[in-house]
Write a structure and sequence with these properties.
12 strands, alpha/beta, 7-stranded mixed beta sheet, 3-stranded antiparallel beta sheet, 221 residues, single chain
Length: 221
């Protein structure tokens, strides 16, 4: 039985993706958001940490970092990349897990970059957001990026149901993604947080447009 967060099909696709994706540097957007919104070091969760490029940047900025991903090969790459660093751990979130493997109120910050839409349903996303609220301290800050209706996932995808679209990834795999249509939609789904700002970044090259919302929020509990 699948848990609230991990789809076994997505695990298989991301295992293939992490086998070919190589990031020498952190996301430019993450660098800016950490500098402008997080501002000062603390304890941060990188949800969907991939190969650890953003974790490495955070460590170099003085953060204590917990990384989590859904594939074994992603975490292996994190371990290889960060073996000379201290102040971090990395874990695999398995389909059998029923919650995030962290205590309550343990993080000052959560980073969830280009990940949340792969959960593929509003129900799963809401359950993950509730877990984010649980593990994030009161007043803690959260950065989430999410696919918009202007992305190829939506404009070139096939609507499956509701706000879920199936589309062809650049690696040739079909995947289902949850699309956030507008700011009101974001505020409705993420109403457990105090949203400070909703922006976007837009990249369009090599035949792919990846328009993403950027949600900056605080835990008001």
């Amino acid at each position: 039985m699948e848990n609230n967060f991990v789809d076994q099909e997505v695990v298989a696709i991301n295992t293939k993706l992490h086998a070919v994706r190589h990031r020498a540097a952190p996301s430019e957007n993450v660098v800016r958001l950490v500098k402008w919104f997080f501002k000062e070091p603390g304890h941060v969760l990188d949800y969907g940490c991939g190969d650890g490029s953003n974790m490495e940047f955070l460590l170099n900025q003085g953060y204590t970092v917990e990384g989590i991903d859904i594939t074994d090969n992603a975490i292996e790459r994190v371990q290889n990349r960060l073996r000379v660093h201290s102040g971090w751990t990395a874990k695999v979130l398995k389909p059998a897990d029923e919650k995030l493997p962290y205590g309550d109120n343990v993080f000052d910050f959560i980073l969830c970059n280009q990940v949340i839409y792969y959960l593929g349903s509003e129900e799963r996303i809401s359950r993950l957001l509730n877990e984010f609220q649980r593990v994030l301290r009161g007043g803690g800050k959260l950065v989430i990026t999410a696919l918009s209706r202007f992305s190829d996932a939506c404009t070139k995808g096939r609507r499956v149901e509701g706000n879920v679209y199936e589309w062809n990834m650049p690696i040739g795999e079909k995947i289902k993604s949850y699309i956030f249509m507008d700011e009101n939609h974001i505020r409705k789904v993420m109403n457990m947080f105090k949203i400070s700002e909703i922006g976007f970044f837009d990249n369009c090259y090599c035949g792919v447009r990846g328009h993403h919302w950027v949600i900056l929020a605080e835990n008001a509990k």
